[in-house]
Amino acid sequence: MNNKCIICGSEQSKRLTGRAGWEVRICSDCANALTVPAPTTDRQYDDHSFFQIPVEGALRWRHAAGDLIKFIHDNGCRGTFLDVGCGNGFAIEAALAAGFEAQGIEASQSAVISGRDRGLQIQVGYYQDNTFPDNTFDVILMNHVLEHSANPRTMLMSAHKHLKPNGYLCLGQSNYLGTIPRLLGARWYAWVPKEHYVHFSVQGVTRLLQNAHFQVKSTRLTTLFWDWENILASTLRHWPGIMLHNFAAFVNQTRLGFPFVGDQFNVLAQKQEGNR
Ligand SMILES: [Zn+2]
To answer: Can you list the domains of the chain with their CATH numbers?
Structure first.
């Protein structure tokens, strides 16, 4: 079986976890992990069932999008904003509220319809090198997008081209080295072997970004769901949930390492000049 890493080209890897029909292997060279066998296509999102969830049923994602935009804004980013793979547009809404001039692109028709119904500017289709003019955006966001691509470096190079000089790229990724995946093993929700080509680590994505002429400016570990808050708040109702969320946020900020590491991370990287 050909286990060649699509990030660095290495053929050396070792098994981390898996189930019948798929496994995850950690690349020995770049610290990212790969789904084996790889998904058969990265053009499978034209009518993705996830985005047929009513907007009101996806409030957790809205909350996470707002938190992500706050991270970007707190790091001093302003101006024109593109969300690549924007889904139904929660991050665009949050970016508009934060003062960005925001738009998105999304392959899923149902997601685009949902976003446009709420007045958002969303282009339908897959993100490509010629989708936007060069030097257009101050900020580009790819939140849970890069792992769906058969060629992540190509996507980053497109973002490099579409960003203005010194513009920022923000990535939101699942962290396969986090506490939750270590505890859950093959049951972790984020493996999604039919869709995810790569499982990134902070170290591995930093290397990929450098290779695509970006310099990492800020990184944070975080959680999305199935964290203490989400598991317990559903039974303990509202106010304990807020306390637990703050606790989860606190332990993630401490960066103490296992077992206090979130199963998500965000990276903000600045475009560097250089040959593509
Ligand atoms: Zn590799």
So the answer is: 13-271 (3.40.50.150)
> Does pTM surpass 0.90?
no
What's the 200 CA to ligand 1 centre distance in angstroms? Answer: 10
CA of 238 to the centre of ligand 1 (A): 43
Q: Is 203 helix (H, G, I), strand (E, B) or coil?
A: helix
Distance between Cα 11 and ligand 1 center (Å): 8
C-alpha to C-alpha distance for 259 and 239, rounded to whole angstroms:
25
**Ligand 1 centroid vs 155 CA: distance in angstroms?**
17
Find the 26 Cα to ligand 1 centroid distance in Å. Answer: 8
Question: pLDDT of 200-244, one tens digit each?
Answer: 999 999 999 999 999 999 998 887 654 445 545 554 444 455 555
